[in-house]
Structure formats: C-alpha cells, structure tokens
C-alpha cells in the first residue's frame, strides 16, 4: 500500500491550507443589500428626527412604508437572482446570507410585535444592533472593512445614547457610513 | 491513508470543492494548474470512487461540466488530513 513521507504530508497539508485560506477570503458579500437597507434605515431614522425637530411635516413619515416595500422587493428579486447563480453559492456565502436574513428578520419582527417596548429611538437602535451583528460575522472571516464599519455602527449607538438631542442623527449617521458605506465599498471592491 | 488522496492534484481538487457548491471544470483547471487531459483523468477517478459528483449543464447554450464534493468525499478528505497530521505528529515526537 502506498503512503506518504512526512515531508510529502507536510507539503500536502500546506497546499490544502493555502486553498482553504484563499476560498474563505473570497467571501463575496452582497454589497447591494447593505447599500439598500443602509439607505432605507438612514432614511427612516433621519425622517423621524426631522419630524421630531419639526423641520419637515409629520405626514412625511408616510413615505417610509413605500421605501420599506422598495427595499423588500429589491432584496427578494436580487436574492432570487443570486440563488439562480450558475455556479451556486459557496457554503460560507450561504452561511453569510443566513446570518443576514435572520438578523434583519429578527429586527423587523421585534420592531413590529414589540413596538410598545421598543419605542421611538429604541426601534432604530435594534436595526443598528442587527446590522452590527451581520458586519461582525463578516469580519470574523477576515474582512477588516466589515470590522471597521461594525465599530462605526456601535460608536453611533454610544453617541446616540449620550446625545439625547441628536439621537436620530447619530443613529442615521451610523447606518449611512457603517452599513450603506460598507455596501458601497464592497461593490467598488468587487468591481 | 486514503490511497486516492495521495495524489496532490486529487487532494487539491477536493480542497477546492470543499467550500463551494458547484465548480466548473475550467475553474478547477485554473486552480490546479494542470492540463485538460490530466485533470480529466484525476476527476474521473474521483467521480468513480463517489468522492465527487459530476453534472453536465448548458449555460448560455454551451455545455458545461461542473463538480461538487459528496459526503463520502468530505469524510474521506477529513480523515486523510487527520492521518497526515497524525503522521507529522509522530515524526515530530520521535
């Protein structure tokens, strides 16, 4: 029976290690999802803050369900396209999309069913937390941009907590630069 | 050790398939830097042993052959890597 020498075994293990490291680093995240949901979340929080500050009329809030519907439709259509991708998705990509949809789904569910507990800014803060979870998951696969953007989100959360007059602005800035910004950077990097 | 995976090219192919759903022949050829005939022969052995599944599809009206790792292939790979690590552990201990 054939076998390997220790030297050959070391060589083979090093090759396997190189291949696996390369394939794990090639986790392509859907930048467009981050951009769409980041812009939607920014719009929601910013609109709410502007209404609170009486800079825009309260009926502006009616635009938000339209934006939400647009974000959902976009995600569903793009998700179907990715699902039909000719080479399919890698295991790590499927894992990533599972984390993405679970986090957003839980945030949305919480927002809808626990609206008496998570009132006003707490509702926006839930989205910030969910977004940060997704980014830190991506960061755990060696993506430093995701790490930086996750930190931006958490920093916006802390800033919002200590600036009561600007809570909405701080959360909106976090979503814009941390979440939508990550999507934009990912799209640029992919191209 | 798994005799089929003693070949560096076949081991490389399995490692390439490990994190992917389906990988095309041309992508595997590019990744392993082997000739068409050589890779074809190695893949045939992996398919025959049940470590890799083969599928022929049409993409933009062109035929395409793609491959996926099977459960048997994944188990064999894991065991083979363990065996190699065991061998290296024994060598460093002696």
The overall pLDDT of chain A, averaged over residues, is 85
Reported for the largest beta sheet of chain B, the result is: 3 strands, antiparallel
- Compute the number of structural domains of chain B: 1
In the CATH hierarchy, the third-tier topology of chain B is known as Arc Repressor Mutant, subunit A
List the helices and strands and how they pair.
The complex is a heterodimer of chains A (191) and B (94).
Chain A: H1 6-25, H2 31-52, H3 63-83, H4 91-113, H5 120-139, H6 144-162, H7 167-190
Helix pairs in contact in A: 2-3, 2-7, 4-5, 5-6, 5-7, 6-7
Chain B: H1 8-18, E1 23-24, H2 25-32, H3 36-49, E2 52-59, E3 62-69, H4 71-93
Antiparallel strand pairs in B: 1-3, 2-3
Would you give an account of this structure?
The complex is a heterodimer of chains A (191) and B (94). Chain A is elongated, with a radius of gyration of 20 Å. The model of chain A has no long low-confidence stretch (mean pLDDT 85). Chain A contains 7 helices and no strands. Chain A is 78% helix and 0% strand. Chain A has one domain. Chain A is an all-alpha fold and 191 residues long. Chain A has helices at residues 6-25, 31-52, 63-83, 91-113, 120-139, 144-162, 167-190. In chain A, helix 2 runs antiparallel to helix 3 (63-83), helix 5 (120-139) runs parallel beside helix 7 (167-190) and helix 6 packs antiparallel against helix 7 (167-190). By secondary structure, chain B is an alpha+beta fold. Chain B has one domain (3-89): Winged helix-like DNA-binding domain superfamily/Winged helix DNA-binding domain (Arc Repressor Mutant, subunit A, Orthogonal Bundle). Helix content of chain B is 60%, strand content 19%. Chain B has 4 helices and 3 strands. Chain B has helices spanning 8-18, 25-32, 36-49, 71-93, and strands at 23-24, 52-59, 62-69. A 3-stranded antiparallel sheet of chain B has the order 1-3-2. In chain B, 31% of the residues are buried. The chains are: A mainly alpha (191), B alpha+beta (94). The A-B interface holds A 1-4, 6, 9-13, 15-16, 19-20, 23-24, 86-92, 94 and B 1, 3, 6, 8, 11-12, 15-16, 18-24, 27, 31, 57, 59, 64, 66, 81, 84-85, 87-88, 91.
């Amino acid at each position: 029976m054939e076998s390997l020498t220790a030297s050959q075994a070391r060589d083979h293990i090093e090759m396997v290690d190189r291949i696996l490291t390369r394939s794990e680093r090639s986790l392509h995240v859907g930048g467009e999802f981050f951009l769409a949901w980041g812009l939607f979340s920014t719009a929601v929080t910013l609109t709410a803050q502007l209404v609170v500050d009486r800079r825009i009329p309260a009926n502006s809030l009616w635009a938000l369900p339209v934006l939400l519907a647009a974000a959902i439709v976009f995600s569903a259509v793009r998700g179907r396209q990715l699902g039909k991708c000719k080479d399919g998705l890698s295991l790590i990509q499927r894992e990533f999309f599972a984390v993405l949809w679970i986090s957003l789904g839980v945030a949305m569910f919480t927002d809808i069913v626990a609206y008496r507990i998570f009132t006003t800014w707490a509702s926006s803060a839930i989205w910030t937390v969910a977004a940060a979870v997704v980014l830190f998951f991506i960061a755990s696969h060696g993506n430093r941009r995701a790490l930086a953007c996750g930190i931006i989100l958490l920093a916006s959360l802390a800033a919002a907590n200590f600036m009561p007059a600007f809570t909405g602005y701080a959360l909106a800035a976090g979503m814009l630069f941390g979440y939508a910004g990550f999507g934009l950077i990912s799209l640029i990097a992919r191209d | 050790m798994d005799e089929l995976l003693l070949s560096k090219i076949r081991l490389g192919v399995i490692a390439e398939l490990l994190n992917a759903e389906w990988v095309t022949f041309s992508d595997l050829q590019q990744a392993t830097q082997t000739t068409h005939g050589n890779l074809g022969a190695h893949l045939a052995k992996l398919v025959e042993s049940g470590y890799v599944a083969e599928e022929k599809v049409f993409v933009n009206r062109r035929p395409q052959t793609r491959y996926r790792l099977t459960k048997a292939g994944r188990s064999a790979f894991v065991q083979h890597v363990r065996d190699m690590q065991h061998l290296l552990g024994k060598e460093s201990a002696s």
